[in-house]
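ok trying this again, last paste got cut off
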Amino acid sequence: MRTVAWELCIALAAVVGVGAGYLVSEGSTTAGYPSNLAKDLAELKPGPETDLILYGKRLVVNTPRLIGKAAQNPAMAYGGNNLSCQSCHLNGGLKPFAAPFVSTAATFPMLVDNKVVTLPDRINSCMRLGLNGKPLPEDSREMTALIAYLKFVGKDSPPGVRLPGSGLMPIALPGDVPSARRGETVYTQHCVSCHGQDGQGAPRLPPEVGYYVPPIWGAESFNGGAGMGQIAYAASYIRANMPVGVDFKNPLLSVQEAWDVAAYMIAHPRPIAPANSPVMPMVIEDLPIQAPPDPDAALPGQELVPDLATQPAGQAP
């Protein structure tokens, strides 16, 4: 029987791509994280290419209105929920360590498990998993516009190089097995004021569609195949970005709290991942993982079964 400690190592090894072929080196670069992209976007000169880039940005920000479940044109309802791309890729995909887009175009195509994954493949993995929908046609204006936007915001990334701040922030292994019960306490203290006791966030008021704060479980959330449905991705993302206003330089939650509240989130029901889920490479930067020497040996003090059980708030475990 595998121990939790070993399972965590497997999860984290998968995140950084050990044995999977998608660990991307940051290479040799003196470039820092771009700080003027919003200004650069605002100063684009009129023209067809600018129109395409700005349409790509609108697709990222106003996803539900344009290609989501509640799209104005029903024929464009590719999303299966009303999340936006920036529900996860914060600030239009520009925030460091919030899975930003600044090096995305530069690192695709990518080899994953002996399969070439293209940039359209990566975009459509988000369509199918994060948005719980169906893929965009690769020759559509929407796909072309998203790629144009990703290339523009990634204009400072040399080919094959990930700028510092790309991907997700490194996070240490937790000192204790992640506990959804402890995570419930963290959620109540730091998350419930925005995401709600029921995890359903804050919908926009009609005639607007989408969310001020996205649901993080339930029928209208991302499905089980999405990166945020995996505990290592979720813990890393949460620590660098949550609660709202936090950044990677000044995290509010401890490492243990981030793992615990991630366990609490993923313990809740959500849509099932599609059959033959697409490969969805993500990278936690610079996080070497070494497996324990004996995968069947429990570490001292470690439980053998992960604690993903939840309980009514206010009751002792």
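PB: full thing came through this time. The longest strand covers residues 110-112.
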